[in-house]
Amino acid sequence: METTVFLLAGGQSTRMGMNKALLEVDGKTMLERLKDEFQPLTSKMVLLTGSHSYSMDLPQLPDDASFRGCGPLAGIYTGLLHSDTEMNLFVACDMPFASRRIGKWMIDELAKTDQDAIIPMTDGILHPLFAVYKTSAKEAAKIQLKRKQYRLKEFLRLLDMKIVAEHDVPDALKAEYANAFWNMNDPESFKVVKTKIKGMKSNDV
């Protein structure tokens, strides 16, 4: 099923101290890594920039003017508002191990239902920033933005969503699923990512 992939790169990165989307991991910025990872899934990939601007050969969308500066929910709403596909995969730029195979699996799972979204969970924590939404979810996002209720947890409560966890994933994807939602928010976690990727490369040799 045709899907738009949205890369969320509009955050302020206050804890990291610099824009997470431009951090280099193994010679590529996070945005370059995610673009390369997910581009095989779709001919429709869009960069959601918030209030930033990037030198990258992808269509770029700033937050909708009515809700600029309202966090990732504004990015999700902006993406859904402009999407011309029913299925929409969102990936945050601070998830270095986000996997297109997990993304494709979530798209396929949502296509089997009439629900608004597939939201993955690990260790009891929901991950709405690497998830799949139908365009029908934009109304709930708009309601919450107008209410000035920007927390994603509250947005999700308005959706008819399917929560998936590791036990739902095919065995061949379980190892990827375990790492796919790991995110980096500060310099220490960035160091961990670089060490982890170095270790993964050594194991591939």
From TrEMBL:
<dbReference type="InterPro" id="IPR013482">
    <property type="entry name" value="Molybde_CF_guanTrfase"/>
</dbReference>
<dbReference type="GO" id="GO:0006777">
    <property type="term" value="P:Mo-molybdopterin cofactor biosynthetic process"/>
</dbReference>
<keyword id="KW-0547">Nucleotide-binding</keyword>
<keyword id="KW-0963">Cytoplasm</keyword>
<feature type="domain" description="MobA-like NTP transferase">
    <location>
        <begin position="6"/>
        <end position="157"/>
    </location>
</feature>
<dbReference type="GO" id="GO:0046872">
    <property type="term" value="F:metal ion binding"/>
</dbReference>
<feature type="binding site">
    <location>
        <position position="94"/>
    </location>
    <ligand>
        <name>GTP</name>
    </ligand>
</feature>
<keyword id="KW-0808">Transferase</keyword>
<keyword id="KW-0479">Metal-binding</keyword>
<comment type="similarity">
    <text>Belongs to the MobA family.</text>
</comment>
<feature type="binding site">
    <location>
        <position position="94"/>
    </location>
    <ligand>
        <name>Mg(2+)</name>
    </ligand>
</feature>
<dbReference type="InterPro" id="IPR025877">
    <property type="entry name" value="MobA-like_NTP_Trfase"/>
</dbReference>
<dbReference type="GO" id="GO:0005525">
    <property type="term" value="F:GTP binding"/>
</dbReference>
<feature type="binding site">
    <location>
        <begin position="8"/>
        <end position="10"/>
    </location>
    <ligand>
        <name>GTP</name>
    </ligand>
</feature>
<dbReference type="InterPro" id="IPR029044">
    <property type="entry name" value="Nucleotide-diphossugar_trans"/>
</dbReference>
<dbReference type="Pfam" id="PF12804">
    <property type="entry name" value="NTP_transf_3"/>
</dbReference>
<keyword id="KW-0342">GTP-binding</keyword>
<feature type="binding site">
    <location>
        <position position="20"/>
    </location>
    <ligand>
        <name>GTP</name>
    </ligand>
</feature>
<feature type="binding site">
    <location>
        <position position="63"/>
    </location>
    <ligand>
        <name>GTP</name>
    </ligand>
</feature>
<keyword id="KW-0501">Molybdenum cofactor biosynthesis</keyword>
<comment type="function">
    <text>Transfers a GMP moiety from GTP to Mo-molybdopterin (Mo-MPT) cofactor (Moco or molybdenum cofactor) to form Mo-molybdopterin guanine dinucleotide (Mo-MGD) cofactor.</text>
</comment>
<dbReference type="GO" id="GO:0005737">
    <property type="term" value="C:cytoplasm"/>
</dbReference>
<keyword id="KW-0460">Magnesium</keyword>
<dbReference type="GO" id="GO:0061603">
    <property type="term" value="F:molybdenum cofactor guanylyltransferase activity"/>
</dbReference>
<protein>
    <recommendedName>
        <fullName>Probable molybdenum cofactor guanylyltransferase</fullName>
        <ecNumber>2.7.7.77</ecNumber>
    </recommendedName>
</protein>
